[in-house]
Amino acid sequence: SNYSYTSPNRYYSASIITMTGITQNNASLAIWISALTSTINFLGTFIGLFLVDRIGRRPLTIASLSGTALALLGLALTFQLSYVNSPKVTFDGGVAENNSCLFESCGVCTSKRECGFCFEGDTEGNYTASCVLSNHSLYDEYSVYGDCSNTTLAAGGIVVYAYDWCPYQYAWITIIALGLYLLFFSSGMAPMPWTINSEIYPNWARATCTSITTSINWSANLLVSLTFLTLTEVLLKHGTFYLYMCVAVCGCVCFTLLLPETRGVPLEQMGDLFSLPVLQRIKKRY
């Protein structure tokens, strides 16, 4: 579950929302949208609570992973469309420092940590824009030179400085995909690993096995959390979500082939269940 994007969502949710461009540098709006997605995550847990003993662990796990994979595909596609269809750079800043930010579009420009996209647009979506060097000392809210280095123009909304995001008219689709991801995840893959993990071990090995699996879980959490921002630079945003989607699909296939239904199985018979051949195991019902 941690390898398919859960940790970045928890720790970087406001940043991910900002990456869509929907907030247009409005930090408070990003936080409120993040709170909304967290509420969806909270409400989704009640779906899992209601269904876990009604439809069983196996169907809920597989359905949850399938849904998260589709939602991750939606996130990847919207970020890719935003990258491919991002506004073009219309003029060069014309100073020597700009040599490191000579790119043709917002997508390529904002994929570089040192650059940002300075633009002024009209109601019809026409942009006058340049790719400029970002001022890291001012938290990347302004550029080193050009119109977006003028705090009066930028603060007044005359020009907009986009660091790590691009203006995109369908950015709201990303928020919907993020909400669907959280809904599918929280209803199945959030509680099911812990539920199944508590049922499948014999008493003599339960403490040790639970400790090992919990350690692996949080190690994966740490790994994904530490590498998320780096992956968005190396693979770009859409490439990162395609990677997470592939992990979710692999998990879905593995659980479909290997995970038996453990609902109603007495602890004493759990070993017998897992000793059955795979096809018999997944068809066995108690």
TrEMBL record:
Keywords: Membrane, Transmembrane, Transmembrane helix, Transport. It comes from the Eukaryota. It holds the Pfam family Sugar_tr. One of its GO terms (molecular function) is myo-inositol:proton symporter activity. Coiled coil: none annotated. It is found in: Membrane. Residues 1-263 form the Major facilitator superfamily (MFS) profile domain. Gene3D superfamilies: MFS general substrate transporter like domains. PROSITE patterns: MFS, SUGAR_TRANSPORT_1. The chain crosses the membrane at residues 29-52, 59-79, 170-192, 204-229, 241-260. It is a multi-pass membrane protein. One of its GO terms (cellular component) is apical plasma membrane. Belongs to the major facilitator superfamily. Sugar transporter (TC 2.A.1.1) family. This is Major facilitator superfamily (MFS) profile domain-containing protein. It comes from Petrolisthes manimaculis.
